[in-house]
Amino acid sequence: MAAITLSGLKKTYSGGVAAVKGVDLHVEDGELVVLVGPSGCGKSTLLRMVAGLESITEGTLSIGGRVVNKLEPAERDIAMVFQNYALYPHMTVYQNLAYGLKNRGVKKNEIERQVREAAQMLEIEPLLTRKPRKLSGGQRQRVAMGRALVRDPAVFLFDEPLSNLDAKLRVQMRVEIKKLQRRLKTTSLYVTHDQLEAMTLGDRLVVLNEGRIEQVGTPMEIYRYPATLFVAGFIGSPAMNLLAVEFLQARNAGDALDELPPGTDTVGIRPDTILLAPPVAPHLAFDATLELFEAAGAESHLYVRLAGSGQTTVIRTDQPAPVAEGDILRFYIPSDALHCFSQATGLRTG
Ligand SMILES: Nc1ncnc2c1ncn2[C@@H]1O[C@H](COP(=O)(O)OP(=O)(O)OP(=O)(O)O)[C@@H](O)[C@H]1O
């Protein structure tokens, strides 16, 4: 049983870089929480503080109800899976898996049992006698996971474990990590800069920006109801379109403009909520030139330039567009699909 609690956690590196500027977060026992954000937002620093690989400048960190600020990594009952696998090259897969257990003085037949069990779970039994250099990237990542698994820790920490794998393998391993975590119910913190990976993997997401939390929530809460302009732009692919209300007002872009919450100066529009025919409900409407048509299998992306602006907007549709590049089209967005924000505060207005 191990919940993780971060209270007012701060990290300032010796050169004066404030990488984490006060983070409060509670991870429930058994939960898989993903830390996501752009490069440099502090997510690795935060994970490394939980691991004990970075000191804590200020604040309190507890794991399983015990304050661990001053404890060594080995005393925290955690196991970490890294991006670069960190396997011992001169050892076989079996030896790599057994190493931690051996160091802890576990008996030989018990080591054998635990290694075999982990290898079976990860389907790497046929690889046990091989050295890491004779393994593919995906196989190495499995071994790295196996090594974390045999330690049977209270907490798993994952630092971008899939970023060295190709796209197909990433998806496959992502699904496997999720299934494994569901089965073991080990509290997990997972760092990635990939918002799709974060959305599909996490029970909850923590969106970080410049060392601070922007929003915490389930993937769908964050997708449907981004709390800030930053989250609106970061989560979702293709990204949410953000348009200035002033620009739309100057073009008389529809009756939905009369209903915006006070303080709104920017509206966000998800590419898949834009319609090619007018809805009955209040809506926005504007003309745009189709610049590029992208067929992406089950869906298509239309890149359009709004009349009177240099701004490109993306539309996602599952209908093949009956149009050619260069055509001027009229687009419609129902008012209940609009996300309203204030540039001044960066916050959602309603
Ligand atoms: N050892 C260090 N000494 C000084 N500054 C550091 C150190 N490690 C990281 N930083 C700085 O702290 C900030 C946060 O870095 P961190 O690696 O935590 O970000 P990140 O979100 O994990 O980024 P990435 O996805 O690129 O790894 C950055 O400005 C980085 O330059």
From TrEMBL:
Q: Where is the ABC transporter domain?
A: 4-235
Q: Which organism is it from?
A: Vreelandella subglaciescola
User: What biological-process terms (Gene Ontology) are attached?
Assistant: carbohydrate transport; glycerol-3-phosphate transmembrane transport; glycerophosphodiester transmembrane transport
Query: What stretch or stretches form a coiled coil here?
Result: none
> Per its record, how is this protein called by name?
Carbohydrate ABC transporter ATP-binding protein, CUT1 family
- Tell me a GO cellular component: ATP-binding cassette (ABC) transporter complex, substrate-binding subunit-containing
Q: Keywords assigned by UniProt? A: ATP-binding, Cell inner membrane, Cell membrane, Membrane, Nucleotide-binding, Sugar transport, Translocase, Transport
Q: Gene3D superfamilies in the record, alphabetically?
A: 2.40.50.100, Nucleic acid-binding proteins (2.40.50.140), P-loop containing nucleotide triphosphate hydrolases (3.40.50.300)
* NCBIfam families attached to this UniProt entry: PRK11650.1
One annotated GO molecular function is: ATP binding
